[in-house]
Amino acid sequence: MTHDQPGETIFTWGAPPLKFGPGAVDEIGHVLYSGDEMSAAFTALTNDRYRHIVLAQAAARFPELAQLRPTRRPEDPVCPSCRGAGGVAQYPQLICECGNLGWIPAGSVLEPF
Ligand SMILES: [Zn+2]
Predict the structure, then answer these.
(1) pTM score, whole prediction
(2) What is the pLDDT of residue 113?
(3) How far is ligand 1, taken at its centre, from the CA of residue 32, in Å?
């Protein structure tokens, strides 16, 4: 789970890369990950589920990044956590494991870091 930072902008972290909690998107759309919020050292995020979450949140938070929003395919199932609601209505600051899209990429696994 993460939360919105007051005054957060795509330049909060000195873009690029664009930073979203532990996830980030660089200037050509690669999804990156930093285990240390204070570090600018990023590695590529290869897990499909985490990429889905970061891209969904990038598109939701910043209109400039709307083209990064994942596109649902027919085989992609409803999110098992929010049952398709796209997060928890009472707690809009919480990020569901579906990135608040209400669905997850078929075959993806939420692996521990
Ligand atoms: Zn969900």
Answers:
(1) 0.70
(2) 60
(3) 21
